[in-house]
Amino acid sequence: MAAVTAVTAAPQQPPRLFRHRKSLIFGGIVLAWLVLWVVLRDTWTLSLGAADLTPLHRWINDVNDAVGASRNSNPVFLYFFNEIRLVIDEFVTFVQALIAQPSFGRPVPVIGWLGVVAIAGFVSLAVAGWRIALLAVAGFVFLGLQGLWQESMDTLSLTLAAVVISLLVGIPLGIWAGLSDRANRVLTPVLDFMQTMPTFVYLAPLTLFFLIGPASATIATLIYAAPPAIRITAHAIRSVPRTTVEASESLGATRNQTLVKVLLPSARKTIVLGVNQTIMAALAMVTIAALIDAPGLGKTVVKALQTLDVGTAFNAGLAIVVLAIVLDRVTTAAASERRTLPRWALFGGAGVTAVCVYLSYTYLWAAEFQSDVEIGSSINKGATAVTEWAQDSLPVLTGGFKDFVTFALINPLQVLLAESPWFLVALVITVLSFMIGGVRSAIVSAVCVALLIATGLWQDSMITLASTLVATVLVMALGIVVGVWMGRSRRADRVIRPVLDAAQVMPAFVYLVPFLALFSASRFTAIIAAVVFAAPVAIKIIADGIRAVSPATVEASTALGSSSWQTIVKVQLPMARGALTLAANQGLIYVLSMVVVGGLVGAGALGYDVVAGFSQGQLYGKGLAAGLAIVVLGVMLDRLTQAAAKRWTN
Amino acid sequence: MARHSVLGTVSAGLVALVVLAGCGGAKVGDTSSGATGDCGTFNLAINPWVGYEANAAVLAYVAEKELKCKVTKKELKEEVAWQGFGTGEVDAVVENWGHDDLRKKYIDEQKTAVSAGSTGVKGQIGWYVPPWLAKEHPDILDWNNLNKYADKFKTSESGDKGQLLDGDPSFVTNDEALVKNLNLNFKVVYGGSETALIQAFRQAEKDKKWVIGYFYSPQWLLNEVKLEKVKLPPYAAGCDADAEKIACDYPDYDLDKIVSKKFADANGPAAQLVKNFKWTNEDQNTVAKYIAEDKMKPEDAAKKWADANADKVKAWLPKA
C-alpha cells in the first residue's frame, strides 16, 4: 500500500532526540505498562462473548433485514442494481459462451481448447515474445492435461470480465487521482477500505443486491481487484517528471494534449503493472467467490475440502497457479519493453490462430479437451501422498516449534494487549504513535482506537493485533534471510521466485488441511498461514532492494576486506532500508488480509467473528463490525509504518 | 527469400492441418442432446456439507431421470440460499438443521419460503470424543466426570483449563454458556471450520490424543471414526429458552426441507418430488460414503443408490 499511497501524512520533522534517550523513554513506557498491567490485569478489558451482541450489532442486523425485505419494491433495486446486474451478467455470460460453456444451442463453447491455446499463444507472441508465448501455450495445454479445462476456462472468463471492468472503471479514476490531489485524498481511504474489508462481510449482501450468479461473483472480485489498478495508475501519472510536463505546457499544449501525448505514454509501463496486479488480485478471489456459486476452479477446491480431499484441491489450486503465472509473465513482459515482431511472424501467427479457432469451432476433437495422457490424477495422488507423509511424520518436530512460538511470543503479547484495561492500551498506542510520527500520527491512532472501541470488539481486536504483530515479525525474519540470499544470487532468485508466486496465488484453503494436522486448530496455525501468504511479497521487495544497492559500493566493501556477513549487515541492508520498511508495511497489510482465513483454523477473535457472521444470520451485524475493526487496524498500522519509514529513510 | 519460404511452410502446414482435421473428427452438433419434459427448471441449492450433497444428488438424479427436469445446482451457504427464495433464484433447500432465525425471517416475516416436511433424517448435535478415549475411559461419556479429566485436554490455546474444541461457524453453539453453567473447568476454543474439527478428531484417534469437541451426526466422518457422544443433562422443551442460562443438551433435530413459496404454490412435478422425498439416516450415510470415501461423483453415487432402491424412489414420484 505504501508504495503508491505516497501522499499520506505530510513530512513530519522528527523530534530531535538522542537515540539512547529515545530508547530510554520507550523502555520506560513499556515498564510502566507492565507494572500497571500487573496491578490492573483483567479489568476493563471490554470483552464480549462469542455469542453476545452489542446494540450496534443488532442495529446492523435490522438494517440488513430491512434492505432484504424491501428489495422487490425499492426503486433503487429495480432501476439501479438490476440494470448493473443485467449488464455484467450479459458480459460474463458472453465471455463464458465464447470459451467455457456450451452456448448458442451447441454442446460446446464457440471456441474450443485448440482455439483458446492458439489465441493465448498468439497474443503472448505479439506482446511478450517467443519465450513467453511458448510458456503460455504450455501452460494452457497443462490445464487441459490436468483434466480441468472447462473449470479453468470458467475461472478465466470470470477473471477476464472482472479485470476488464476493473480497468474500465479504474484507469479513468486513477488518472483523475493522479491529476488532482483532492481526488487522491478522497479515493485513498476508499481504496484502503475496499482492499482490507474482508470479502466474507459483503459476500452475502452482494447476492441480495445482485442476485446469485456471475454478476455477484464478478462484483465481489471487482471490489478487491480494482484498487491496485487505480492506485498504480495514479502513482504512474504522478511520477512523470515535473520537467516533462512543464516542457509540454510551455509549448502551449492543452491539459488534454498533455495527458494524452505526454502523461499517458510516459506512464504506460507502470500502468501495465497495475493491470498485472489487478489480474493477480482477481485470481486471489477465485475460491472465495465460489461460495456464492461462482463457476470454475474455486468450486472444485471448496468441494474437495468438504471431504478433506487435499489431492483434488491441490490439483485445482495448481491450475490457478498456472493461470496466474502465465498471465503474470505475459503482462510483466508487455510492461518491460515494447517489441516489434517481424511482419511475417505476425501474419503467419494470425493465420495459424484463425485456422485453429475455426477447427475448434467445427470439430469435436479441437473443441473438447480429450487426452490419453491425463496427469491430473497423478498430481492428485502425489499431493495426497506428500500430505499424508507430512501429517504422519512431522508433528513431532512442528509441535515443539509451535509451543515455543506460542509461549514465547504470542501469549505474552496477547496477554499484555488483551488483558490490560482498554484505556491503558489506548494511551500506550497513542504515545508510541506520537514518538514514531509526531502529533499527526498520534491523532490518527487515537481516532482508530476510538473506532475499535465503538465496534464493541475491543478485546477481539487486541487478540488479533497480537497475532498480526507476531506474524509480521516472522514475515520480516523470513523476508530478510531469503530476500538477501535472492538479492545476492541470481541463481537462487531464479529458483525461488516461481515458488513465491505459487505461494501467493495457491488458495489458502488447500494448505490449511495439512497445516491443521501439523499444528492443530490454534492461533499459531493461523499465523503460519498468514506467513505463507505474506512472506513472498516481503521477500520479493527485499530481494529487489538488495539488488538495487550499487554494485560499486558492494565491491568497495569487499575490497576493503569485509566478510560477506559484514557486507550484508553494514552495507547492503542499511542501503536497502527503503525496501525493508516497504516490506514491513506490505507484510503487515497482507497478514491482515489473512485474518479471516485464520479464523477458519483456530485464530478466534476478529477472524472467527467475520466467519460466523457470514454463516449465521443473528451474528451478521457482529461480523460486519469485526470486518470494520480489521479495516481500522489496517489503516492504523499502515499509517504508523509509513510514518516510521519516512523518518528512518530520511 | 527466407520470408517467402517461411510463409510457404506455414501455409503448407495449415493446409495439412485442415485436411487432417477434415478426415478424422466428429463435427460439433453431430450428436444432439435429449429434449426436456414439462418439468422445466429446478433450482436446487447445494449447501456445503456431504450429507446435504447426498440428499441433493439423489433428488437431482431422480428429477432429471424420471421427471426430465433441467436441474440447476447452486452451491451456496445456508444464509445465501434462503435469501435466494425471495429473489426467486432458489427453489429448494433439502436438508435444514433447525435455523429458527431463518425460519422466522423468511417463513413468518417475509413469507417467501415454506416448509416441505421432514427428510426422515434425524440430526444430533453435541460433544463428542474419539473412540479410543471412550473405550479406555468409559466414564468420560458422562459430563459429570469431565472435570476429572480437564487437565488432559489442555492445549496451547486453552491456558490452564481443558480445551473444548468448537466452532463450525455454521451452527449455533451454546457451549460457552454450557461450560459456565455446568461449572466445567474447560475453555471453548473456536476451531472455526468443519475441516478443523474433522482433522482434530482424525488425529486424535490415530495418535490417541485427548480431544473433546462439538460435532454432529449424520456426518461422513462417523463412517470412518466412530466418535462417541458425551451425555449432557437431558434436553427438555424450553430449557434452552434463555441463551445465557442454558445447562442442557442440544435438542434432536428433525431435518427438513424448505422450498420457496412460489415453487410450492405452482406444485409442479419437481415440487411434488421434493415434498415426497423421505429416507433414513442409513440411506444418507450410504450415499455420503460413496461421495466422501469412495470419491464417486455425486451423480454416480445417486445412480448407484437409486438403482438399488427403486421402490423407495418410486414412492417419491408424483402420482400422475
UniProtKB/TrEMBL annotation, chain A:
Domain ABC transmembrane type-1: 152-331, 461-641
Lipid bilayer topology: Multi-pass membrane protein
Pfam families hit by this protein: BPD_transp_1
Annotated TM spans: 23-40, 110-143, 155-179, 199-225, 271-292, 312-332, 344-364, 413-435, 442-459, 465-487, 499-518, 524-543, 587-607, 619-637
Keywords linked to the UniProt accession: Cell membrane, Membrane, Transmembrane, Transmembrane helix, Transport
Record InterPro entries: MetI-like, MetI-like_sf
The family this protein is said to belong to: Belongs to the binding-protein-dependent transport system permease family.
Protein name as annotated: Glycine/betaine ABC transporter permease
Organism this protein belongs to: Lentzea cavernae
UniProtKB/TrEMBL annotation, chain B:
Domain ABC-type glycine betaine transport system substrate-binding: 43-306
Signal peptide: 1-21
SUPFAM superfamilies linked to this entry: Periplasmic binding protein-like II (SSF53850)
PROSITE patterns xrefs: PROKAR_LIPOPROTEIN
Keyword entries, A-Z: Signal
Top-level taxon of origin: Bacteria
Database matches in InterPro entries: ABC_Gly_betaine_transp_sub-bd
Protein name in the entry: Glycine/betaine-binding protein
